[in-house]
């Protein structure tokens, strides 16, 4: 009996000491913004040194021909859903067109349902208002911003799980620190960490210690169209990429310290081609283009003890493949109602791909569709390129390969008919208010329609505010849908100089009306002294946050409208954001 009890005790002891998630690897996905394939020293660029990313490649697996979309939000949607972005309703980078349809299942939901703790820190860009918000799409914790780009990278206005907060220092360092804290807090349970960084997207801002290395640097490598390259912009982008590399090193070090490297899969990739004309392996195209240079991204994956160090995979792959790949590697059964377009890359990663069939990857943006097989690219003008012998896309070989050319033309027509046709840019998708998955709804100037004299501070709306509100005829409206009837507390983010205070504003939605007065001054200067390259976007500033009252909103659709009923000065205010909190 004593022996039996001793055996039972030893069994329980071993059971308790054994980590229950050892068969469930942690996942860390690092996604950069506007970083080209060529912005890494491991890809041959001698203008830059990225030792931490290079080490990731040396100790992990590199995909030589990996493809994403031509711009930001479509790539994010494809990574998260395993489906082409047109299927999920993503057609734009703003105006609500960046949102994924609500019947899509995300990577975060798949892993959360499998027992993972999930977090996203950075640029979301797939919907702001719940249920499009990251907290509604499977992420337990979110810190960052939901727009397409941000106007200031040093301690900016951000959000944490829907609450407006102030960032801490340089934005990428801040996002990384949140990730390090998350890893530390969840080291004893399986986690999924998504780090969608927002650099080197403009504005071109980076801590001085990185810029000092580049501002007087003599570049050695240039774009194939050197006469079109702005070397100052190139240097700024490379300095920002070096900051990314430093932060990748921080993540790798944390995993080493916590002895998590053997149970963590790390992925590193970008969301599109470079955001300027700079060296990119002499490929044709940059961000926004569906040519090779606009859609080819680095992809490095490391899982110590499971992937062969230094292995290079030549087979073509895509962002749509990441969800099925990670799910299979983690041994997770996906409960997804929509069929995936991606396939699992596990056989390539685990050296057991005895037979790998050729496939076609489709790159679509702005009506331009390009097809990539292992050997060929059919571009949006229906020119055929032999990518094995002419990776720079100089020579149309459609006459040399008539059979392959016709096959790709047919595939292109079929994809346009059967896949691209699913996209409905005129679908009725108002901005939702009052979804129970978050405690408040943000309605930023980005999503507003301004009429009359009102102007937008930025030609790209993502990080903009509205100004020149000079008339009682001017309106700011949101195409909205209240999901739950009730009383809502209203908070306003605005600026107004002392000499302009006193305007009366009417906020209305269908029959509901709230009137309030702008009776407190707050005048903030534009943050226009931190860029290392002149920006194309408008500058941003700080705004006053003020509770202006409560309004009862009935469930239903309508226009949420703000209109001044009295303007004593020359302008009512500059508007940035309104928050609606159900009480």
TrEMBL record:
It holds the Pfam family Sulfatase. It comes from Draconibacterium sediminis. It comes from the Bacteria. Belongs to the sulfatase family. InterPro entries: Alkaline_phosphatase_core_sf, Sulfatase, Sulfatase_CS, Sulfatase_N. Residues 1-20 form the signal peptide. One of its GO terms (molecular function) is metal ion binding. The keyword Transmembrane helix does not apply. Residues 25-332 form the Sulfatase N-terminal domain. The lineage of its organism: Bacteria, Pseudomonadati, Bacteroidota, Bacteroidia, Marinilabiliales. This is N-acetylgalactosamine 6-sulfate sulfatase. The keyword Oxidoreductase does not apply. Keywords: Calcium, Hydrolase, Metal-binding, Signal. CDD domains: ARS_like (cd16146).
